[in-house]
Amino acid sequence: MSLKKRILNNGLASILQKGIRVLEQLFLVPFFISAWGAAYYGEWLTLTIIPTMIGFSDLGFGTAAGNSFILSFASGNMKKTADINKNGIYLISLMIGVAMILSIIVLFILDYSAVFEKSLINRVDALYAVSFLILARLLTFYSQMIQAYYRAAQRAALSMNLQTIFSSSNLVAGLVILLSGYGVIAFALSQLLVVVVFTLFYYFKGRKTLNFNQEYKGEINRNIIKSIANKGLGYLMSPVWQALYFQGSTFIVRIILGAEAVAVYNTVRTLSRSLNQVFYMIKSTVFPELQFEIGKQNYKTAQRLFRLAILSVFAMSFMGLIFLVFFGLPFYNLWTQNQLEVSRTMWYIFTSSMLFNAIWWTTEMAFGAVNQPKKMAIFGITGALISLVFTYLGSKYFNLEGAAFGAIILDIILVILVVPYGCKLMRMKPSDLVNHIIPDFKYIFSLIKNKI
């Protein structure tokens, strides 16, 4: 299958996957409320905080191991690939065991403190349900490693489609449980069974798809484990610094400007970033092929994919910016039923961040493609902290307009830091992004004209 065809398939699979994920977040809500009642459902959401938080405990090991596996496989080093596979599975399994033990301890402490006694959900039901959900969440730690099999086989679209089937199965299982009148234990158990069945199928299908050379069985290697762990910590920092930025800025606005200002600040930020999901799909479409070409040392092809991704996202973000400048504010007023007042200055500041965000976010995939996440983590933390300082000063002296400027500082800083280093990882210069604009645009238009 040609590179163009694979990218097209990845794009279509990414669109479908994104749609199902949005549906997964919204579809079951009315059924929950209808079957259990609003208060009971609210208690359920509170309980699910525990498995959600535990979900961070994989420390990015799956991502680190998966990326290492692909780069090694593409380079043709089958012995090292087998070692990475075995050590990756071993480390993930170890983390699942440790996380399960910690979860049991946490549940014991909460139960001893009579936390579940205060819930609308029966204490025993809550303990069983949360335990099932925790185990289900822990088993998904294998998914990043297994996903690497498909990407190494250049069948990333198949992996995305299987993940979409998994999400759809969760929806169907949950819907059947709710419509049948069952409670939290049955719902949690249904989710666990779906995860178990899917993970087994996903693993064996992935191995078959890759047809991985069985000549080497792989050996436990402390250096490989240490490397995966170090890179895993780098990947973990991505959600950490983003949480620091988003939650920290919200807290600052609340303390300085009040609750109503928080409502304005967060709703404007949310709407101004609403089109970003479209841009992110381009990144997920290109990334698997980009990484494989890097692993094969085909940097000329990889550089072209990299440039095309950035150019496409920037062009789309520019059109999105124009749309939001002219039509975004009226839509915002309609969306909020004219209950919140937003100045044009604040609106323009937030919407302009789309351009900067599109550039650095797309460039950031180079860090994952070569499996070097630590530098991006440092850039992210640095940018977030500086942004929070500007948000504080801006809120204090220039109200919401100043807070908006503080928010956009992050995107500006990350463009300055991420783009040059990302280009360096791709063995190219930042000026190459500009110098190839015309031929790259011509190439994109030829793809559109010929329908890939």
Give a written overview of the molecule.
InterPro entries: Poly_Biosynth_Transport, Polysacc_synth. This is Na+-driven multidrug efflux pump. With 452 residues, this protein is mostly helical. The protein folds into 2 domains: 1-236, no CATH class; 258-451, no CATH class. It is built from 19 helices and no strands. The longest helix is centred in the last third of the chain and has 52 residues, at 374-425. The mean pLDDT is 89.
Structure characteristics:
mainly alpha; single chain; 452 residues
Class by SSE composition? mainly alpha
Compute the number of strand runs: 0
Major sheet description: none
Alpha plus pi helix count = 19
- Based on the structure, what is the oligomeric state of the protein chains? single chain
Produce the secondary structure layout.
Layout: H1 3-26, H2 29-36, H3 38-47, H4 49-54, H5 61-75, H6 78-112, H7 123-139, H8 143-152, H9 156-179, H10 184-210, H11 222-257, H12 259-272, H13 276-295, H14 299-335, H15 344-363, H16 365-369, H17 374-425, H18 430-435, H19 437-449
Helix pairs in contact: 1-9, 1-13, 2-3, 5-6, 5-8, 5-11, 5-13, 6-7, 6-11, 7-10, 8-9, 8-10, 9-10, 11-12, 11-17, 13-14, 13-15, 14-15, 14-19, 15-17
